[in-house]
Protein: HAD family hydrolase
Amino acid sequence: MTDRLLDWLCGHDTVVFDLDGVLVDSNEVKVACMRSALSDFGDALVEDFLHEFRRTFGRSRREHFAAFHRDRLGGSGEGPGFEEFLARYSGRYAELIAERYRRAPLCAGAAELVRALQGRGTPLHVATGTLTAEAEEVLAAAGLASAITSVRGGERPKAQRLGEILRETEVTAAARRTVLVGDSRQDLLAAAQAGTAFLFVERYAFFPFAQVLTGPEANGSYRVWDLAPDAAVLFGPSHDSRPKEAAP
Structure:
């Protein structure tokens, strides 16, 4: 018998949500913003990078731009030259995000689940690659800010953000009682590094569970199709997590 999502999450001391593709249906919004921000460099180079951008979604903004500067432009990904590049193109990206991000809809079940967890007194946090101020703004626009204890943005890597939450909630010794709810392999790796449990949400993810929940980091991970409170929580990459009506 499988657990339903709401009950399963309430069995944890702390729930940490990723933002994009988990609470907010914004993954492709960010891809489109990145495509426009880097348009100076031509379609071929940018589209090649966007594949990596999707694959490593969940990294901090600085890490993404460093990867483009280093791997596509032959730069160092650090130093004065990179900082000038970062200021220019990250600034463009931030302007596009400011224009489009807050209009992204919530993911299916997100509002209902967050409010149900809040009603049960479960501590909720957000750890995201999005900058903190941007994340706080989109949560406020969605009406979810009051339910979230803290928002930890992409100024630091996600694993560090999870560590902060564990230290400040004094549950370091019981890290597995904290769960990160995410939609990317970067989220899985952050949870593994911090020692927390991991729940993969598949519906809005760039890649299916079979491509995300691989390797030793996936040991003990769980999956769910979306955030509907009654969604079935499955253990690891065993079979399709979609409800029958969503399967092709």
About this structure: The chain is about 45% helix and 10% strand. The mean pLDDT is 91.
